[in-house]
């Protein structure tokens, strides 16, 4: 059985959705970020970065959202939620997973925590830079979906769509959220209609962007 350490609505969300989609046994353990449980000695032994998610796999802890999604897709090929190595769509799948992890997700960190990237007098500039990067990715994803959709791998739903939708949710209170792009808005509606999304909202007690 897997054990997932996470916090509602954070980067653990995509991994939690993946476990629900795969319909595999798992235990959800909430990490209280406000109480700084992610910085406790006990948690740091599992994840020295002091972040969520952490997934216990065969008794060993692993972390990084994108890596965990790739791992789960490979461990459960029968679910068909990720192209197998050598499959025609494998390169596209890897490209977008890494792009979301390397470009979009870090830009959100700069948007939410500009103080970590700039002096107080330049925080506004840091947020503007982050917003421009985020919106540029939305534009690329929307164009890709418009040309190749309805999912990021065409007709095939995958773990990649869960990752993208989690990140779209993070933009919900931004001046121009992801749903301002029509193809992205349609993808979000498809993913949010899935039983896994509705079940996760119950487990994590989420309400916004339901």
Describe the overall structure.
- There is one protein chain.
- With 210 residues, this protein is an alpha+beta fold.
- The protein has 2 domains: 2-81 and 196-204, Glutaredoxin, CATH 3.40.30.10; 90-194, Glutathione S-transferase Yfyf (Class Pi), Chain A, domain 2 (Up-down Bundle), CATH 1.20.1050.10.
- Helix content is 52%, strand content 9%.
- It contains 8 helices and 4 strands, in the order βαβαββαααααα.
- It has a 4-stranded mixed sheet.
- α4 packs parallel to α6 (159-170) and α6 (159-170) packs across α7.
- The model has no long low-confidence stretch (mean pLDDT 97).
Could you give the topology of this structure?
Blueprint: E1 2-6, H1 12-22, E2 26-30, H2 41-46, E3 54-57, E4 60-63, H3 65-75, H4 90-112, H5 123-148, H6 159-170, H7 182-192, H8 195-204
Helix pairs in contact: 1-3, 1-6, 1-8, 4-5, 4-6, 5-7, 6-7
Short account of what is shown:
This protein is an alpha+beta fold.
Query: Which spans have pLDDT < 50 for at least 5 consecutive residues?
Result: none
What's the β-strand tally?
4
Approximate shape: globular
Structural domain count: 2
Strand order of the largest sheet: 2-1-3-4
Mean of pLDDT:
97
Primary descriptors:
single chain; 210 residues; alpha+beta; Glutaredoxin; Glutathione S-transferase Yfyf (Class Pi), Chain A, domain 2; 2 domains; 4-stranded mixed sheet; 4 strands; 52% helix
